[in-house]
């Protein structure tokens, strides 16, 4: 195997020799679903670019395998602020929130991002 191929493989999995974190896979999948939902939403959104940038950031952090919780939450807040009022995107946004919550260290901490309303 070429030396460059080893470096790429280590970057993809986070760290050499470690199993990928299943939480990171869940986050990446949830981000992909929200990205598809956002791309398919026909209405113009003033903060669409900001949401897409933060979704790319979330996906990149998930791919490292060991994302920083405070940075995950910051990105989630920015995405929620950009698309949170669009009820059609609520379920996909909720999935991203749930995936970020998987990385939470303290389950008893107060919510910082409101959960989507049922039926919204």
Question: Overview of this structure, please?
Answer:
With 120 residues, the protein is mainly alpha-helical. Helices cover 62% and strands 0% of the residues. The protein is built from five helices and no strands. It has helices spanning 3-13, 22-40, 48-64, 69-83, 90-101. Helix 2 runs antiparallel to helix 3 (48-64) and helix 2 runs antiparallel to helix 5 (90-101).
Helix and strand element order: HHHHH
| Percentage beta strand | under 5%
Helix content: 55-70%
Mean pLDDT level:
80
Straight-line N-to-C gap: 51 Å
What count of helical segments does DSSP give?
5
Which class of secondary structure composition applies to the elements?
A: mainly alpha
Count of DSSP E strands? 0
Radius of gyration: 16 Å
Report the sheet with the most strands, covering strand number, pairing sense and barrel closure: none
Shape: elongated
Poorly predicted sequence stretches spanning 5 or more consecutive residues: 1-14, 106-114
